[in-house]
Specification:
The chain has 7 helices and no strands. Helix 2 (37-54) packs across helix 3, helix 4 (75-102) crosses helix 7 and helix 6 (133-147) runs antiparallel to helix 7. The protein has a single domain (31-166), classed as Orthogonal Bundle (N-utilizing Substance Protein B Homolog, Chain A), CATH 1.10.940. The chain has 170 residues and is mainly alpha-helical.
Amino acid sequence: MSTLRDDEFWDGPTQEPLLPAKGRRARGKATSKTERVETRGRARALQALYAADLRDQTQLRRIATTVFDDLAVAPDERAFASRLVATVADRGQQLDVALGEVTNNWRLERLGAIERAVLRLAAAELARDEAPVKVVLQEAVHLAERYGTERSARFVNGVLDAYARKLGKL
């Protein structure tokens, strides 16, 4: 029985959903020089949440550290992403229950790993209340579209809009 090495996990077919839809980029590099640290940090947090979802959600912090180390994430991006990951690790169950209440006819565990990770990421950022709600929603939709599909983006937009309204933030 062969085991899957970390470099195979990130570079092999399992990684494909995490690659940007339009063109590939080098690992650890920003997609553009004008892209904000928070935008890049959200993408890094999403990668960690996705990896933990596929491996072991209970090891989220350890997996995030490994992902950030493997990708040589810049310190400012890492700090931002780590705060979001910590919020999901600390309040994940609460966030999942709250998200489950607004996903009509869909249990969270039935969603795709990308959609689930994006929803958790945005819910964590809304819980932190550090960024404007519309920015959080817009960034989450962008991540869903970039790493998922256009259909994923529409679904994420609908769920997060309902979630933000339920929280009284919209």
